[in-house]
Amino acid sequence: MHFSTSHQFKAKVEIMFVWFFWSLLTLPEATGTNAGVNVKLTQKGLEYGRQIGIASIQQKLRTIHVPDISGTERVDPIGKVQYSFTGMQIVNLGLPQSSLGLVPGTGVSLSIDNAFISLHGNWRVKYLRIIKDSGSFDLAVSELSISTTIAVMSDDTGRPSVSMTNCAATVGRVSIKFHGGASWLYNLFSSFINKALRDALQKQICPLVADSIADMNPHLKTLNVLARVDKYAEIEYSMVASPAISSTSIDLGLKGEFYNIGQHKEPPFSPTPFSLPSEDTSMLYIGVSAFTANSAGFVYHSAGALSLNITDDMIPSGSPLRLNTGTFGVFIPQIAKMYPGLMMQLLVKTEKEPILTFESNNVTVQASSTVTAYAIQPNSTLSPLFVLNLGGSVSARVYVTELKLAGAVTLNEIYMSLAKSYVGPFQVTSLDNIFKMILKVTVIPKVNARLEEGYPLPAIGKMQLVNTQLQVLKDYLLIGTDVQFKG
Question: Quick one: which of 50, 42, 60 has its CA closest to 99?
């Protein structure tokens, strides 16, 4: 089964830069718990992050402020020469070559080569006490290189934070073209401004790169570590271990477990370890295990949310089968005799949590419930008629919509047995067709309406999934997607 979507957004550079660090979050210590959700960030994803990150750093470097430079030098045979270089502004800056690398088991390295900066400024000199001269100059810095290492850690909320651990910036060549003034002064200026500019640039570059990396942290804090689903449930996406960093991808495990709101009670089953395939056609792969889906069933069952009162007004008006003692009296005559002409009500509720199974291209759900039938007396009191044990299976279709995993189910078959009768013995098999119809027109639509609302996937900020595909594999769902950020 596949679902694809294509949304195009113009993204802010600062927001987009953070996305490839989303998969680097880690907690201070691994818990040893198996993951319910696995995530793989591929080389394609890292390349996207590199492009956006370089754009962010380039914007930050454009804010470099080159201070005015002044001083006095003795020049034979003139004597003392007072000089100043003022108003230096960056007019062009480029980072044409860069690479983002994974250091297995360690972190992320970023290198920039053959960068260039062009500046324009003014010069002024005074010598022989009374002679003044001035003009402008253009300065080109080339063969500029920057290398840095980015560390990832966890803040006190379990969300990721990033920082620069080391940085080196090297200015290669500096060339100057002067305009105006006496030409004999130019060689004098060249040596002064060359050294001064190197020092000024090399002092500012690494702090600005560090600022650019630190700017990601407010966006990383938007990670939905605990995502509210509805009034019953929330899902936790905290890390269960440190990320596994290889030379080609970043793999990490998220808890991926549903809980009742405010009550983090563990279910009577645990995640089964699973690994994502080595695919790399998408930026990001998310594997959602059957454990995650089944923890949802456990939560909703525990909350009593998997129950439904069915009344006649929920059955289509055109149906010949009505929820009254007359209809059921055809199959169970004693009902019509004991409770003639009364409307009925059915209470369907789960006896234990439903179990979802993922097989190749197939999702099935096994559910065990009871159905209690009541006759509604004229004074609205309920008289119990019988209790049935109801089992069955449904097929499910799952898909991704925006940042949610959604689905729909269809009823395959049901199995019934009599648990208790208040009207005497009867043949349960005679009710197969009527109950299958009732479930199809009442219970299944309610279930599908909730499934259509979807359940949140792990996300940062205004992240959007693009070109998304979903596959049902053995024991988990595999979502392959590209990523964009809404500005």
Answer: 50
Architecture of domain 17-28+42-220: Super Roll (3.15)
Assess whether pLDDT exceeds 70 at residue 42: yes
Q: Are the beta carbons of 453 and 469 closer than 8 angstroms?
A: no
Please name the amino acid found at residue 270. S
Hey, do 17-28+42-220 and 306-456 end up sharing a CATH topology, with the first three levels equal?
A: no
Q: Which of 8-22, 169-183, 437-451 has the lowest mean pLDDT?
A: 8-22
CA distance 216 to 19: 9
Tokens of 73: 């030098």
Domain residues of the chain, as ranges?
17-28+42-220, 306-456
Report the topology of domain 306-456.
Bactericidal permeability-increasing protein; domain 2 (3.15.20)
Phi, psi torsion values for 201, nearest 5 degrees: -70, -45
Q: Give pLDDT tens digits for 199-227.
A: 888 888 999 999 988 888 888 788 788 99
Helix boundaries (H) for 343-428? none
Q: What is the pLDDT of residues 352-370, one digit of tens each?
A: 999 999 999 999 888 889 9
CA distances from 416 to 306, 366, 373 (A): 18, 14, 14
> Residue 381 class from Cβ within 10 Å (0-12 exposed, 13-18 middle, 19+ buried)?
exposed
How would you classify residue 448: left for phi > 0, otherwise alpha for psi between -120 and 50, otherwise beta? Answer: alpha
pLDDT at 177 over 90: no
Pair of tokens at residue 166: 């080391």
In 252-403, alpha helices (H): 290-302, 325-331, 333-338
Write down the number of H helices and E strands in the chain: 9, 23
CB of 386 closer than 8 Å to CB of 421: yes
213 vs 201: CA distance, rounded Å: 19
- How does DSSP classify residue 34? P
Say what the pTM is: 0.82
CB 188 within 8 A of CB 127: no
Q: Over the chain, what is the mean pLDDT?
A: 86
Joined tokens for residue 275: 């690994």
Positive/negative CA dihedral, 362, 282, 448, 475:
positive
